[in-house]
Amino acid sequence: MEHLISKYLINDLTREEEVKLKSWLEEDALNRKVFENIVADWKLSADEILTSKSAVLDRIVNSATPSHELPKERSLGAFDYLIRVAAVMVLGIGLYLVWDATNSAETSHVATQEVQIEKEAANGQKLTFELSDGTIVKLNSGSMLSYPKVFSESKREVTLVGEAFFDVARDESRPFKIKSGEVNVQVLGTSFNVRSYPDAEQIEVAVKTGSVSVESSFSESDVVLVPDEMVVYTTGSNFFDKKRIEDSQQVFGWMDQALIFEDRGIKDIIKELSRWYDVKFEIKRELDYKKAFTARYKNPTLKAVLESLSYAYDFEYEIDGKKVIIK
């Protein structure tokens, strides 16, 4: 059929040939796509190319004179030569476009894996979303997760700043790896919490289900955690303090709007409140930074927390929009 397409390109089809070409185009939707691909640079989709490019090439080649019919010998005139050259060009263009579309589809798949997405839970917010592999992520206030739009076939890697809870979809062929500050966390399928704020001196990893491997960026040695275990890493020390989780609410409670302070200093508490309520503090008086504070709240208002803190640390406060003045 390539000789008819060649004649179509040079506008030299007879009425009979036009009917024959039209019949071939209407015979199969794939025929029309091949035709359009050649004459109008129309590209097949990736799936169609992968499943039918062999059939396309066979149809183009086999549409020539059948092998058992010997062509009549005749001299090759200038017009016939032009048609044959055009046919070769058409076949070459068709093969190139099929190759180009296939190559473009493969490039597109790789490019999709390289696209990085950043999800951020601003101060005062919490986010829950799903990754391409089915992993569920819950971001705490003031946190950000960077991850590829589509994970590769060999690995799943994300980068965390702040705090997040992961419920990882199990895939033994592709471990799930989290890079967070000076700590790397690797799992196959489990649920756990990572707390790693840039302004904090410690990074915490706590396991709810399954098992987790935690290692420092400065060492190849790792710590393996099982359910109800956690590890506290002091930045810059390359030291892991592994311990049992005595109070799961203290670690995982933030997902249920539980605000818990256990022997915390006012400096850390102010940082936590700044993220939780998206406010900034202006301190106009001296505070006892060595004094520890313990309290539990369930979905509290900022005013309720400040009331109890004001009694404990003996200060007055004023809430002015997104600013808290301690005086």
TrEMBL record:
Tree of life domain: Bacteria
UniProt-listed InterPro entries: FecR, FecR_C, Ferrdict_sens_TM
Domain Protein FecR C-terminal: 259-326
Ranges for domain FecR protein: 121-212
Name of a matching Pfam family: FecR_C
UniProt name for this protein: FecR family protein
Organism: Marinoscillum luteum
